[in-house]
Amino acid sequence: MLNQQTPTLPRDCGACPIRHRAVCAQCEAEELEQLDRIKYYRNFEAGQTIVWSGDQMDFVGSVVTGIATLTQTMEDGRTQMVGLLLPSDFVGRPGRSVAAYDVVATSDMVMCCFRKKPFEQLLSVTPAVAQRLLQMTLDELDAAREWMLVLGRKTAREKIASLLSIIGRRNATLNLGAPAGKMVFDLPLTREAMADYLGLTLETVSRQISALRRDGVIVLEGKRRVTVPDFDRLLDEAGDDSDGGLPV
Amino acid sequence: MLNQQTPTLPRDCGACPIRHRAVCAQCEAEELEQLDRIKYYRNFEAGQTIVWSGDQMDFVGSVVTGIATLTQTMEDGRTQMVGLLLPSDFVGRPGRSVAAYDVVATSDMVMCCFRKKPFEQLLSVTPAVAQRLLQMTLDELDAAREWMLVLGRKTAREKIASLLSIIGRRNATLNLGAPAGKMVFDLPLTREAMADYLGLTLETVSRQISALRRDGVIVLEGKRRVTVPDFDRLLDEAGDDSDGGLPV
DNA sequence: GCCCATCCTTGACGCAGATCAAACTTCCGG
DNA sequence: CCGGAAGTTTGATCTGCGTCAAGGATGGGC
Given B131, B146, B149, which is nearest A124 (Cβ)? Predict the structure, then answer.
């Protein structure tokens, strides 16, 4: 991950890669300016913990580039990932001063942070931001509920297939259009992180990935690069309706 | 469940039992009046399905009395409960016309419904409603994430203890003050519904409840009435921090 | 080049919880 | 009062995944 670039921060919202998907998506010029006034960028390195559960948290923000995870840990060390944060996803909760989860950077990251107090102030007077935040929160709630089905009722193989199809689908919508036919992407997570997401052990994750490879559902190139020859086949393995995902 | 009462509907918001906890909690008189104009009450019987996943849904609303469940079902019949709706909880999603989950009345229920279109209209011009809805959605998201830890990482015994402690805590905050010491409540769910919530089979639920009873963690009176002699002990069995729940 | 850390894979074995099966309790309708 | 349905309990057995253990790949630092 030796990244030479001194990340040139997009000081200008107009050029921001997440301008039209983040919490600021629906803002007009003047609202954007208000946000601009309370924003600042922060970089995080892969592996770095951004916030510890229980810590004071004086900012909220958006993932600009990179990937982070939201995890809960029990006293005896068992951990469960409860969210995967991708570019444009929102971090933190207005109205709460203490973090409820650990937030960890999985890759090098750039975050666009807002000081919490002014952001909350802005929320109460700027409907565009509040409405967008509501939309995004409802989407996250749907994702969490979809994940409850995965955790509660799916087999290990179905869990892996579900994770792959979610990552694949998101990649597809980001790059091209509809997910279909062949598809290639990189796994942004280690086997252990996948296990934490899926409520499995890393050994089981490894075994099931091997099994899916043996059965031709996926093709691996190294440990991380995945090719899905037939996306419908993968959805089938995930136990999902082949029409895929939630109705909108 | 032979309920004689013809439920006298609280036409008046001022006398509504959920006035200060539902989506209307932060409304002033005039906003309340706007809501009042688009609201209507509906009754449901225990066991009745309120909405089918995939159905058109032309209303949103609040649970006034009674209990409902939100469930997802896979093609082969495996089902997972993804939400438990108690009085004041919100049903439906603004901006979506098709239901994503089955909503089933677990007891006799009264719902305060709003026609969807006018409600969405109102959302965009009434910050008090939009803000309250955001708060409630964030709370639900936290609950869903707490439940992901339960589903993904807890043992059957811990799952049962977690469910009991959640129901107990909610009962306590509804009736008295802080949950502590002795506590009595009724289980609002069948063993099967508990199994669907916990990602278990109903046999395992039954066995673990018996085990908790044998070990003195709970006392049963009939199948449904539960006494918890020592709430901290129950929290301990649930694997939760004894200070209990999310920081606020 | 070699070493070491991190990540991953694979095997052997055991157990928590699923599955299959049967019987009990409660309660409502006739 | 009896019969049957719905819900619950308990037992016997099976199995998917966890646990423990060993070894293989990869890549960065020296």
Answer: B131
